[in-house]
Fold each of these.
Amino acid sequence: MITQWRKSTRSEDHGNCVELAALPHAIAIRDSKAPDTGHLTLTPHAFTTLIHRAKQNKLNL
């Protein structure tokens, strides 16, 4: 299976962005500047929660 990564249309031109890929049972996230360093894999529910919390500025980093 070839993973097709996509970058947001809101990404900056100089590479400060993340890329997403839809996997059979998960969503993968990676740094576009370092695509060979690995990726984070989240369940669809966890990904939805991440996006929701990010939009509310509640990531608690």
Amino acid sequence: MKFSELLQNLLTEFDITQAKLSRDTGIPKTTISGWLNAGRLPDYNAIRTLCMYFDISADELLQIKKG
């Protein structure tokens, strides 16, 4: 699954909009839109912020499978 699909699933699961995610995290809406629509990937700080916001690990966010 692409990062954009995973992020869209999280937005749907938590029932939040891009605008709300932007307001709550301080991540610009244009950046979030780039992740969802242009295939861009988040940097380290954004990954940390998203993990804390959604209360998930970086492994879950980036879909890293161990073992």
Amino acid sequence: MVKRTTKKYTVGIRIWINEEQGHFMGIGRVRLLEHIRETGSITNAAKAMKMSYRQAWQMVEDMNSRSDKPLVEKILGGKGGGGAKVTEAGEKAISLFYKLEQKIEQISNELSGLINL
């Protein structure tokens, strides 16, 4: 006779925020914004995420073009060199994403309790 164990299942959900023309933001882009905020640099943010500068820059450009206001602004070089900063709109986007994620996680946890196979 085979002993059966009770398995626990959970519902997992990933969040993407889409704009009319396509993908706007997901957790990867949020983390990119956070790294830019922390480092003041797209280059250093890309390195922290193990991606190319070109890929990070394209993601920033894509988010900026899909948003009503830029999420990241370049800081032109000078004595200390250039860089980048997350704008107020970018900070709002990060905050909104995590609020949505928290709400959806609550719903996901509730749904997980319904699974009994």
Amino acid sequence: MGLQRIIIWLILGAISGWIAGQLMKGRGFGLVGNIVVGILGSFIGGWLGGKLGIYEATVGGLSLPSILTSVGGAVVLLFIIGLVKKS
């Protein structure tokens, strides 16, 4: 994995984590936490997209489908984290 790919992952994670934090109204974890949530969310979103038959969701790089997939996965992850924190 090259440096350019890692940088794209970090940017995608930051964008997705920030958007998911805004959508979930304050359930973000700061810049570094949002990057981690965004990167993990992209894996979750890609997996869910594949299971639901949305194959455009598994496209890599900085594209609209990959951002939407990452945001969706990050929102799901933030929701689950919120449920765990409440209990």
